[in-house]
Amino acid sequence: SQNVGRYSITSGTIEFSSKADLETIKANSKELKGLIDPVSHSVAFRVPNNSFIGFNSQLQHDHFNENYMETDLYSNCTFTGKIIDEVNFSKDGVYLVRAKGVLNIKGVGQERIIKGIIYIKGAELFLTSEFIVSLNDHDIRIPRIVQQKIAPDIGVSLTAKMKVLK
What we know:
Elements: E1 7-19, E2 24-29, E3 33-37, E4 42-48, E5 53-54, H1 58-68, E6 76-83, E7 93-105, E8 108-121, E9 124-134, E10 153-164
Antiparallel strand pairs: 1-2, 1-3, 1-10, 2-5, 3-4, 4-6, 6-7, 7-8, 8-9, 9-10
């Protein structure tokens, strides 16, 4: 088998989008880290909350970190789990996968099944995924005054390029 080691992210981006009645807010981070273990099918990803950039204003950025994510207390969002579909990591190809695990945002873990696409080419692996995060699931409260500016369900997308660790 050509791929015996674990895969680690060499470059990755995670983006979120809030599409509310009065405003669309987007931000992204290029500090996505992660591992996939082909033997156990386990996955682990994390992104530092304070690494997100974008937003429509500095004030939104500050509110995201201070009020909504409480970045001082909860520095990372994480997902840990296992790929529950068959993937032949030693064979080039495209694999539709589901990972079952715990998505932890702001200290609140929720068991989730997250779909993704894995594209294997040689010692490289490319991963894409899109999913929805409901703010209520992670005890993120939106003040009434801005409820028409922040959506209750946030779209998340990620792309990662991974290489086998030597």
